[in-house]
Design brief:
The structure holds two protein chains of two kinds. Chain A is an all-beta fold. Chain A is 0% helix and 28% strand. Chain A has a domain at 9-93 and 136-150: Rieske Iron-sulfur Protein, CATH 2.102.10.10. Chain A has strands at 19-22, 44-49, 65-69, 87-91, 101-105, 110-113, 119-121, 127-130, 139-140, 142-145, 148-151. Chain A has a five-stranded antiparallel β-sheet with strand order 1-2-3-4-9, with no helix packed on it. By secondary structure, chain B is mainly beta. In chain B, the strands form ten sheets. Chain B has a five-stranded mixed β-sheet with strand order 1-32-33-34-35, with no helix packed on it. Classes of the chains: A mainly beta, B mainly beta. Chain A binds chain B through residues 1-3, 23-25, 60-62, 93-94, 97-100, 102-107, 112-117, 130-132, 160-161, 163-164, and chain B through 1, 4, 78-79, 81, 100, 102, 118, 120-121, 123-128, 130, 171, 195, 424, 426, 429-430, 435-437, 538-539, 542-543, 546, 560.
């Protein structure tokens, strides 16, 4: 259930033009560039950031996304238009029970939920390939400007899970 | 945000609360005396009595007639995922808690809904286990943990919230699923979150007001007793020792026994020392929270072996002498006979009840020595048996004073392997030292069996019988009765079964809607005995089933969705 009241800028869902910044690690808070990401994984967790005010939208966990860079030719035709330079972004909130989708299963090439093991296919619009989640991960369309990853539009689908 | 949510919750409750008027007049208040000596016709707490026996003296349904057991009524909970709560019954009123922080109150004889409570969770909330393990009763209230780490007191007649107490902040990984334990008007509860770097505790609230009375951490701060077992600075702060199963209580010594989870993160070399009081039983004074005794099953855990289940309070004979004891089948694969006194927990003996290759020996105080090759560490892979799910996980064992046996829902012939790494701590995020894809779980392609219901003679310390399941794990908490019966589900064929408690023979079985991982209970209304259980597969049982399917080629697919079942003898 979305509260009807207006959200603070740091709670607003990802907006077109937002940059993505690292959630953790040595580069925490830095803007993500295409070439920073290792081709073939692993994934990185990120929050959107308003490029003008530099507000990181970490006030709502549902804004957390995962980004991963794969071979451009490996994406299927539905997925590829949402990618930029081989980089694809999805909601990092599992559609099963809301846990983090924060791990990369390199041998199968799937995005993994830490709670109950749902695996999603990043090359096929976040489709569920294993585990209990009822629906795919919402994709976050991307573009690139001067090598920087830029949000091209809102989530395609509602991030999070349905409580009952 | 928070206030708005509460307001919405209250509105929902008012709407359904009106249904309760009919039975409201006759609700029988639950007193301390009733909890100490529960009437046979009622099932007033999760494991039936304070001692944790999961035993009822009722015997109208018995080994001679259980073949005539039939469903009397059923009721859909409206929720998927793992249902792990028993039907709690007080004078004809049944309370069932479900995943997603819901409580249903029903007429125990007919299944008519009296009221329903549903907590609205924050939109960004998540929990590794979104289950609930039962309500607790006291006075005219029903107490339940809210998945968010809160304890909620509901009016037993209407389901309206009387008070709510916040145990911790969910954003840092804490959550709560256990049934509270109520002694002398103190509502005790604890917290989950061991995989997210929490520091475990037990907390007590005044049953009337919800005011916090005491809080005792399972991981001591520097200077407190036990802190000398945390040798590396600051490791205690996120030291785990979560408390996620209900304690037991001994009215004689006036001690509450609580089980604690493994230390965090999972690998012992990252937090050198014994790490008290993780993987232990602690004895607490329910009035003050003061620690009166402890027993650690294994020190410096590296296998994710929580010892979250409190031991059963059982007096047994040892070498011809009466012993005031505690008995516990531990997750580490050993069955323990312990002693209890007002100031200590002592060790009598322990024996492996499943294949266990980690312990080299156990000394006279119960402390094991380890086969070093079986101890995973940071950058060191090691395999070990049993796997992290242990000889048994949380499903309850049972004790039947008429047969003198304890019964264990065990799992055998499974092993695991782990290799640790240092993970950056981020509040509220997975922090075990191992990524999920790297958690090793192994079973043979054709295992002789996995699930293993075992019966042990308490006095003799020997296994009397066992019943194995060739193609299923055993995730079913047990109920045993004065009718020489054991009731349990727990298998991937959706069945609910009755066993002969003396011989282990299956006397009755029936397929249900889903798989059963909830404790059965039994009660009587108007002189007729009923057996109740909730069927609803999910969380660890479902996750593990997926892994086993991959390893063995099985195609077991257990549908989810919760249904309360109530059985009785055909007329």
């Amino acid at each position: 259930m979305q509260p009807a009241l207006a959200r603070e800028p740091n709670e607003m869902s990802p907006q077109a033009g937002d940059r993505l910044v690292y959630v953790q690690g040595d580069r925490k808070g830095e803007v993500i560039k295409v070439k920073d990401l290792t081709l073939g994984g692993p994934l990185q967790l990120a929050f959107p950031m308003d490029p003008n005010s530099k507000t990181v939208r970490d006030g709502n966990r549902l804004n957390q996304v995962l980004v991963i860079r794969l071979k451009e030719d490996d994406f299927n035709s539905e997925t590829k238009p949402n990618t930029a330079g081989g980089v694809v972004a999805y909601s990092a909130i599992c559609t099963h029970q809301g846990c983090d989708v924060s791990q990369w299963k390199g041998d199968k090439g799937t995005l993994l939920c830490v709670c109950h093991g749902t695996e999603y296919d990043p090359k096929d619009r976040g489709n569920v390939v294993f585990g209990p989640a009822p629906r795919r991960l919402p994709i976050l369309p991307l573009s690139a400007e001067d090598g920087v990853v830029v949000v091209a539009g809102g989530f395609r689908g509602k991030p999070g899970f349905k409580d009952m | 945000m928070r206030n708005r949510r509460l307001a919405i919750c209250s509105a929902v409750l008012l709407a359904v609360g009106a249904m309760s008027a009919a039975h409201g007049q006759n609700y029988a208040p639950v007193t301390a005396a009733r909890l100490t000596n529960p009437e046979p016709e009622n099932w007033l707490m999760t494991r039936g009595n304070y001692q944790g026996w999961s035993y009822s003296p009722l015997d109208k349904i018995n080994a001679g007639n259980v073949g005539k057991l039939v469903p009397i009524w059923s009721y859909s909970t409206g929720v998927t995922s793992g249902h792990q709560a028993p039907p709690i019954v007080n004078n004809g009123v049944m309370f069932v808690s479900t995943p997603s922080a819901q409580v249903l109150a029903l007429n125990a004889k007919t299944g008519e809904l009296l009221w329903k409570y549903k907590r609205e969770l924050p939109e960004d909330f998540s929990a590794l286990h979104n289950t609930n393990r039962g309500v607790a009763l006291y006075g005219d209230k029903v107490y339940v943990t809210g998945l968010e780490p809160v304890v909620i007191a509901l009016d037993a007649k209407t389901g309206k919230v009387v008070w709510e107490a916040k145990m911790e902040n969910y954003k840092t990984g804490y959550y709560s699923t256990l049934a509270p334990l109520i002694v002398n008007g103190k509502v005790m509860a604890g917290v989950s979150g061991g995989e997210f770097g929490v520091r475990g505790f037990v907390v007590a609230y005044d049953a009337e007001t919800g005011k916090e009375v005491w809080k005792t951490y399972t991981v001591p701060a520097p200077g407190e007793p036990g802190s000398e077992t945390w040798l590396k600075a600051d490791t205690w702060k996120r030291g785990g020792g979560s408390v996620w199963m209900t304690g037991t209580y001994d009215p004689d010594t006036k001690l509450a026994f609580w089980g604690t989870g493994n230390a965090a993160p999972w690998f012992g070399d990252q937090r050198p020392g014994d790490n008290l009081y993780s993987s232990s039983t602690v004895a607490l004074d329910p009035d003050t929270g003061k620690l009166k005794g402890h027993f650690q099953y294994h020190h410096n855990d590296s296998w994710d072996w929580d010892e979250m289940n409190a031991p059963m309070v059982i007096d047994y004979k040892k070498d011809g002498k009466d012993v005031k004891g505690l008995v516990k089948p531990a997750r580490n694969g050993y069955l323990y006979w312990l002693t209890r006194s007002p100031t200590s927990i002592g060790f009598t003996s322990a024996t492996a009840y499943v294949k266990q290759d980690v312990f080299k020996s156990i000394d006279g105080k119960g402390r094991p020595t380890y086969n070093e090759g079986k101890v995973p560490a940071t950058g060191k892979k090691a395999s070990f048996c049993p796997s992290l799910w242990g000889g048994k996980d949380w499903p309850f064992e049972a004790y039947n004073p008429k047969t003198g046996m304890i019964y264990i829902p065990a799992n055998d012939n499974h092993c695991g392997f782990l290799e640790g790494k240092v993970q950056e701590y981020v509040a509220g995020k997975w922090w075990t030292g191992v990524d999920i894809p790297d958690i090793g779980f192994t079973v043979d392609k054709k295992p002789p069996y996995l699930g293993d219901l075992q019966a042990w003679d308490v006095a003799g310390g020997k296994k009397v019988w066992n019943h194995t399941f060739a193609e299923s794990m055993m995730w079913g908490p047990l109920l045993t009765t004065g009718g020489n019966l054991i009731f349990a589900g727990g298998t991937n064929d959706r069945k609910f079964r009755a066993f002969d408690a003396k011989s282990g023979k299956v006397l009755w079985e029936m397929g249900t809607n889903s798989g059963i991982t909830a404790p059965p209970s039994t009660f009587a209304v108007d002189g007729k005995q009923y057996v109740a259980v909730v069927s609803g597969w999910g969380v660890d049982a479902a996750f593990q089933q997926g892994l086993i399917n991959n390893l063995t080629g099985w195609k077991k697919d257990v549908p989810e969705g919760g249904v309360i079942w109530v059985f009785g003898l055909a007329q």
